[in-house]
Amino acid sequence: MEKITTCIRAEKVEYKKLTDSISIFNYESVSKPKLSILNTKSCGFIYTKDIPKTVRCPVKGIVENLYFVTPKLLRYINEYGFTDDTYKLFKSEILENFYENIENHIPIFIDYSLHMIFDVNKKVLPTCIYFDYIQARLNSSNYDLNAVLKVLWDREDVYNIDKYMDLDIKNIPYYNNDTGNEQFISFRWVASIEDYKKMWDKCLKYKCEYPSCRMYEAIAALDLLGIEKYKIEGG
If you average pLDDT over residues 29-58, what whole number do you get? Predict the structure, then answer.
């Protein structure tokens, strides 16, 4: 990667190009820090167009929420999403001092509010999606669950939430079960990059403030799981 070195008011900052639009900076304090934006970190990301050209230019354009992560963490987010274990993995699987050694690490944006990840070019990456009777409305009032279960059993991208148990139809807990006979299916969907991108593109087309809230609607509209023909009319 191309390196650019500059000294800004006695603070040495070295830049290394990551992509056409983003560079990595390495900050070395050789005197009392005067650049408060760099005061708390020794390395980080900056938009290449914002790299200071002279000693009097202020540093701006710091790139937030971009990290170098291991393939292990990326795979875990893809297969399990954002769980308590995911955040525990952050401590060991996110590279802290990444200026010189970034081998075997992948740059990704992590959007904590959406629980989603994107590559360095802001293209969406697949994250596990959980289905249940509340958000996904995958219950016996809305679907023929026996038919749906057969479809899900044949899919290689659908897994039971409890990995030690087989996917099955379960009773909705009594506190959310008005008739006492309501049932549901819960599972996690580990979508391919192609299916996930289709889903996200559909979400963006809704042009709402929080497109991630329309995921289940988009999945159903595109019938990405192949179960919509078993939806009960009026459900």
Answer: 62
